[in-house]
Amino acid sequence: MAVTVEDVRTALSAVKDPEIRRPITDLGMVDTVAVDPAGGVDLTVLLTIAACPLRDTLTRDVTAAVRAVPGVTDLRLTLGVMTDDQRSALRDSLKGGATKDIPFARPESRTRVYAIASGKGGVGKSTVTVNLAAALAAQGLAVGVLDADVYGFSIPRMLGVTGRPTRIGEMILPPVAHGIKVISVGMFVDGNTPVVWRGPMLHRALQQFLADVFWGDLDVLLLDLPPGTGDIAISTAQLIPSTEILVVTTPQTAAAEVAERAGAIALQTRQKVAGVIENMSPMLLPDGSRMALFGSGGGRIVADSLSRATGTTVELLGQVPLEVGLREAGDSGTPLVLTAPTAPAAQVLRQVADGLARRSRPLAGVSLGISPKR
Ligand SMILES: Nc1ncnc2c1ncn2[C@@H]1O[C@H](COP(=O)(O)OP(=O)(O)OP(=O)(O)O)[C@@H](O)[C@H]1O
Question: Is 126 assigned a ligand-binding role in the annotation?
């Protein structure tokens, strides 16, 4: 049977743009399709920008899809580039026309937003963030990570992201790694330049990343906050009031006291504390005994004290042991939950992710669409 243009278009509707993650047929990227009587296909696909970092992936996916159509004997693929008008039409269709709006702050948003907070640096906040993100994405959830930790942007390295975000006018397309959309403040500064941003600048940066980045329909957004109880936690509360806080602490008592303060900020901003994760918990030794390098009990102390302070039950969601493999996986760019899902630390992190995946977005601020009976 002769191949039709419709057959080719149908096959192309299964190809998603690697960055936007929607079918290329819905994005205006399929420009022209022609089929000759011998089954040869002439196809022009438009890239969003000429320097599209994922043009090879797109070429491969398009070629595979078209070649798989029965009767296709040849494919002559031309890659073009969208005009400015086509790009703005695409941006408007993705953003629903509104560019300055934060989609997660809308009452009808179904995205759960978690801010990962810690009292001080180096407690493993980024490690926890990337592993939770990877575990949630592995379950098939649409996950985004916003690395707002201006004092050390380690998220891109831990997820193996080297690419820069693509810009379409004012819209920013985040790189995707292990199925996770990733944006880091570090992607917008040169090399290792430290960022000495203060409150208002940070607030603007966060607002821009939330509004201008095309996140698509996310199930979960994880925000890696700078350590401490600073301005950015307050900014997060202002920009997305439904954000819940996940507090990371080490088992050390001193660290726990500092972590408590990070959690207590939620009282002032009226955000919910989703739970406490203790990291660097006693290490499992080959003989089955445990070594408590950083002491023990910190997670429980923080959870109990936040429960008292908030008058709700704040749970200790998990205790992630110190584990060489967890650090190595972070250094290699693939989180431990993917490289060794049954390793002790990975099991705890996957369990925490399972718990987060089962929770539904809090109804605070959501209109239930019920009107009182008159
Ligand atoms: N449970 C663990 N076992 C072994 N190493 C760990 C563990 N958790 C974190 N690490 C390692 O400790 C170091 C600090 O962790 P990480 O960068 O995640 O902390 P952080 O709190 O995000 O720090 P910062 O606030 O400075 O960004 C990293 O090298 C990481 O690989």
Answer: yes
Tell me if 4 is assigned to some domain: no
- Full-prediction pTM beyond 0.90? no
Would you say residue 101 lies in a domain? Answer: no
What is the β-pairing status of strands 220-224 and 176-177?
Answer: unpaired
Q: How many domains does the chain have?
A: 2
Same domain, 170 and 81: no
Q: How much is the average pLDDT of 186-208?
A: 72
Which residues have any ligand 1 atom within 6 Å of their CB?
A: 118, 121-127, 149, 152, 154, 227, 279-280, 320, 322-323, 326-327, 330, 345
Residue 91 shares a structural domain with residue 118: no
Q: What ipTM did this prediction achieve?
A: 0.98
pLDDT score, position 198: 64
Looking at the structure, tell me whether residues 180 and 119 fall in a common domain: yes
